[in-house]
Amino acid sequence: MAGWSQPGHGLLRGERGAVTVAGLEEANTSTQVIVLNGGSSSGKTGIARCLQAVLPPPWIRLGVDDLVDALPPSLDGSESGVAVGRHGEVTVGDDFRRIEAAWMSGIAAMATAGARIIVDDVFLGGAASQERTRAHLAGLTVLWVGVRCAPEIAAGREVARGDRVSGMAASQAARVHEGVVYDVEVDTAHAESLDCARVIAAYVT
Amino acid sequence: MAGWSQPGHGLLRGERGAVTVAGLEEANTSTQVIVLNGGSSSGKTGIARCLQAVLPPPWIRLGVDDLVDALPPSLDGSESGVAVGRHGEVTVGDDFRRIEAAWMSGIAAMATAGARIIVDDVFLGGAASQERTRAHLAGLTVLWVGVRCAPEIAAGREVARGDRVSGMAASQAARVHEGVVYDVEVDTAHAESLDCARVIAAYVT
Amino acid sequence: MAGWSQPGHGLLRGERGAVTVAGLEEANTSTQVIVLNGGSSSGKTGIARCLQAVLPPPWIRLGVDDLVDALPPSLDGSESGVAVGRHGEVTVGDDFRRIEAAWMSGIAAMATAGARIIVDDVFLGGAASQERTRAHLAGLTVLWVGVRCAPEIAAGREVARGDRVSGMAASQAARVHEGVVYDVEVDTAHAESLDCARVIAAYVT
Amino acid sequence: MAGWSQPGHGLLRGERGAVTVAGLEEANTSTQVIVLNGGSSSGKTGIARCLQAVLPPPWIRLGVDDLVDALPPSLDGSESGVAVGRHGEVTVGDDFRRIEAAWMSGIAAMATAGARIIVDDVFLGGAASQERTRAHLAGLTVLWVGVRCAPEIAAGREVARGDRVSGMAASQAARVHEGVVYDVEVDTAHAESLDCARVIAAYVT
Questions:
Q1: Could you say which residues from 47 to 86 on chain D have a Cβ atom under 8 Å away from some Cβ of chain A?
Q2: Nearest chain A CA: its distance from C81 CA (Å)
Q3: Which of chain D's residues have a Cβ under 8 Å away from the Cβ of B162?
Q4: Which has the closest alpha carbon to D149: D183, D108, D192, D199?
Q5: pLDDT tens-digit readout, C22-63
Q6: pLDDT band at residue D29, thresholds of 50, 70 and 90?
Q7: Chain B interface, mutation test: which of C187, C194, C199, most B Cβ atoms within 10 Å?
């Protein structure tokens, strides 16, 4: 399906130039979900916003931070929910995992219903996290993007933004990429967010 | 469905393996989604947070404001997206409606997958908005809650919060309830958010 | 002096109708600083915003929260700076007290230079805090306002706002008013912010 | 250094009573205010936070954004206050100028009273803005810092942050530096915030 599903509208099609009658076939090859994976303070959210600016609309942006914001206070800081330790290490419990699974089912349903979604995520479990995410997004065309940033640079940006527990950036910088397979990778230590977004956008079909 | 919070229960049906007949019956009568409908500055978000505190966890909280935050900049302030006029009147275009429909499909999928969700909404179209929402949530047990607040009081709270275009509260106060049918209604002009949440919680099964 | 101090400008004078030649005499009786004192979640900030809306401009709004935001990370959460305990109890150390003293000197200088200032404060030390503040504002015409709210109601609002450590509201509700002398008091448990602001505005000369 | 942080030193000059000749000399050479001037999205605030982390505490951080936040709604978006045009051009009126003058008097008084202050500013008038600021800070030891960023890079970061009117960064990038004299300049297009902060910190005496 090309873009939003209402026949006759062709919201995105018109901007693409050549749209075949076989809209459904096109659907099989059009990116429906962009997953940005990177550690805290690696610059994912900035890239996601730039992607929204450079891609033909409407891509919406949802991330694990939105899910954390949606949690009840009892899961914020608790063992069964999400907790951030003194040195920025994040631990997640079973209750959070179950909600996250339901949340990902919802993201998949939104994409199936025609929304184009940029998911801003942190694969705390590396390859295992990717497998879980892949299972939830089964049947959708996903672009897997690695957002890398050297730990010492991410740590410096963590200081500059001032709203994260110190240590989170460094502890996640390498770990979230372990064993993860990408379609494209960008490095925010060496390129601006907007330039990274342009690189990624070239992979969006 | 037993949902999330009961001790000793498996959390997601699929993970339990054996679901008894009793479980299924229970499922049919347990609230899966709470829809809070009210105008801007009527106090919906405060009530939603209080509901998260008084209900057994984990209820997550998602609202139309989260969707608006997720939009690309091209839909923010545009005719096809969401625009707020000089006097606080909100208009939504076709592109927004399509994304909103996909978003609601996602909310429904999250609830079907076992999440309990408090939806914080503004039925700009009154009864027609409720019908659209009802269609998206078909098959789920929904508690419909009206959050009322006298327009002049909501307008005063709009001044006090300082982050909304002046006029939005007054223009929505009555309109969003036109023709809408509720299971329970609360009035934030006469009761604190936490007390409203306790009233609502008594209707959650 | 009425309003801003530049001779010949009369920024606010023109709006007042009858301004005598004796501008300086008028100055002695015109309110230069409004100090709002109340516990966390008592509604001070909402009242301050409403005051800005109902008073002839330009009143600016500065509060202890702005000072806390301005602190270096080393003083946030430390014994010598400002720390919030598990149950919401706030403790302040010597370093914070010294910065606060310099901050208050600055507020006084702004008012002396012609700015009208609404100070949003929390007198953790009750009467002693008021004495310190009074000393810093010596020579200025100050309106002292008590913002009261029953502890159980403030605690409920703390839940509804969701961004404060639980317990802060209850622990401060009575304590911050101990021995403090006011020109006017309002109670946000029984009146909306805008109505409280109108009551206070009537005392502004 | 007279300042705040060194153990064994009296903190505020006035509180020590007897200040030795050596102390005064020391005072004359100690930085009391750091003024960071740069266009929107040039990275001033990030550098300011990093400075707070690398300098011995306690430096507080205050900026023109804090002043804008403190304004009454009637001055936000008005001709006499601060207005942002369709293309991000900022215009300030007489009322804002008067409040800003009082604000700067207050900043100077805070520094005189012993606070060390990082001022995060945008010299919309270039050299003229610096002269005004210099006059307000007369008698204080000020470190003037230019925060440069190529307009196209600042514009890209404006997209990435998503909370500024498009065009503001580009329109200010060069203009705010016209005729301004600095003690040290940094370029955020070529160095991280934390590295810029370290460069600047070496000039703090």
A1: 47, 49-50, 53
A2: 17
A3: 73
A4: D192
A5: 333 344 459 999 999 999 999 999 999 999 999 997 899 999
A6: low
A7: C194
Distances (CA, A) of A163 to A167, C61, D45, D119, D198: 12, 24, 13, 20, 20
- Using a CB–CB cutoff of 8 Å, tell me whether D194 touches chain A: yes
Q: Reduced to 3 states, what is the DSSP secondary structure of residue B144?
A: strand
- One-letter amino acid at C17 equals G
- B77 touches B83 (CB < 8 A): yes
Do C71 and D60 make contact, defined as CB atoms within 8 angstroms?
A: yes
Name A143's bridge partners.
Answer: A34
Compare all CA atoms of chain A with the CA of D47 and give the residue at the minimum distance: A160
Q: Which of A65, A76, A95, A187 is catalytic?
A: A65
Catalytic residue among C65, C76, C95, C195: C65
pLDDT given at position D17: 29
Quick one: what percent of chain C has pLDDT higher than 70? 86
- Judge: C72–D66 Cβ closer than 8 Å, yes or no: no
Residues of D in contact with B73 (CB under 8 A): 162, 166
B149 touches chain C (CB under 8 A): no
Q: Coil, strand, or helix at residue B205? A: coil
- DSSP string across chain D: --SS-STTS-SSHHHHS---HHHHHHHHHS--EEEEE--TTSSHHHHHHHHHHHSSS-EEEEEHHHHHHHS-GGGBTSSSSEEE-TTS-EEE-HHHHHHHHHHHHHHHHHHHTT-EEEEEE--TTTHHHHHHHHHHTTTS-EEEEEEE--HHHHHHHHHHH--S-TTHHHHHHTGGGTT---SEEEETTTS-HHHHHHHHHTT--
pLDDT category at A44 given cuts 50, 70, 90 is: very high
Q: Do D4 and C73 touch (CB under 8 A)?
A: no
Chain C positions in Cβ-Cβ contact with residue B46 (cut-off 8 Å):
157, 160-161
Q: Give the H/E segment covering residue B166.
A: none
Is B121 tagged catalytic? Answer: no
Taking the C-alpha atoms of residue D157 and residue D43, their distance in angstroms, rounded to an integer, is 9
Mean pLDDT score across all residues of chain D: 87
Q: Is the pLDDT of residue A22 over 90?
A: no
> Does D193 contact A53 at a Cβ distance shorter than 8 Å?
no
Bond prior to B151 in cis (omega within 30° of 0): no
Contact criterion met (CB < 8 Å) for A157 and D193 = yes
pLDDT, tens only, B108-154: 999 999 999 999 999 999 999 999 999 999 999 999 999 999 999 99
Q: CA-nearest residue of chain B to D162? A: B73
Tell the burial category of C48 from Cβ atoms under 10 Å away from its Cβ (0-12, 13-18, 19+). buried
Beta carbons within 10 angstroms of residue D90's beta carbon: 16
